[in-house]
Amino acid sequence: MNELSLDGQYAGIDDFATTGARELSKVLDLLQRMGWELFYKKSDIYNAQIAPGIPLYEVLFNKGNRRNDELRRMKSAIAKLQNEPYWDENPKQDLNCTYWMLNHTAGRTELSGSGIAEGHARDGFLISFQPSYFNFSPIAVQKEEEDAKDVINVWHSSHLLDVLFQMGEMPLSLYFSHKYTTRFDFCRLKKNYGFELINPANFSLFDAAFKKVESLSWTALQTDDGLDYKEFSKNRNTRRFFSPEEWNKRIMKFRVSSEIRCFGNVENDKFYLLRIDLDHKLSDLG
Fold first, then answer.
1. For the chain, is the Cβ count within 10 Å smaller at the N or the C terminus?
2. What is the residue-wise DSSP string for 123-191?
3. Which residues of the chain form beta strands (DSSP E)?
4. Whether the predicted pLDDT of 82 surpasses 60
5. What is the rounded average pLDDT of the residues 34-51?
6. Sequence-distant (≥ 6) Cβ neighbours of residue 106 within 8 angstroms
7. CA pair distance 27, 209, nearest whole angstrom
8. All structural domains of the chain
């Protein structure tokens, strides 16, 4: 935990609840679901101020704040990941050395004894509150006059997804299922015609297409030339590719690339992805 990212930057408890607490809860919840139980903090983290004169412990342990859902969720998320361990009870950073954060505009800033320096020493990644001065990644950290080392810094759940996926800690199916939740549901993908067809060569095409679909309203989606979103025709050549129930809900398709198409049903403002067509052969039939 980057305790330096909490320095009284919020207007008050409500502001902290809807910005800092909400996003931190999402980050911690995702880490827990991935089985990452070690969440190191400095033992005096609860003394850090969320607003002038308001320390974190007052927000978390004041009974009057229990009415705030965001604060309750945040407190629960931290408790699930244990109050301990506190890294300063067994620090890995060399307390006799000076650690610096390098910034191309601000130069060197000393941060010895901080969570950032400990992240450098433990080869871990940092979690910061947002918004804060530390909402950038990676953070270049230098010990004494040694070469600087980049430390990954996370402050948003979508960024954490990217980090875990790039580290090989999250399979592609979970990555897309967690990243694209506004418009998509992947629970009905057909075996052998789903995530198995996405590979490093075409990953960016799918990622860009899913991102675009998520960003558009249904009206804009239906008129976007690039996605070519439209209904797939049922005929004697296409009937066997989907069940009667799926056909009754209308099969829709959209373009990922000149060759690739995605097929699915729309229910309750969700696109349930059913099948991927890599070579346009299925799409040509209807």
1. C
2. T--EE--SSSTT-SSPEEEEETTSPPEEE-EE-SHHHHHHHHHHTT-S-HHHHHHHH--SSEE-TTPPT
3. 49-51, 54-55, 99-103, 107-110, 126-127, 139-143, 149-151, 153-154, 184-185, 230-231, 252-255, 261-267, 270-277
4. no
5. 88
6. none
7. 25
8. 1-170 (no CATH), 171-285 (3.30.2310.20)
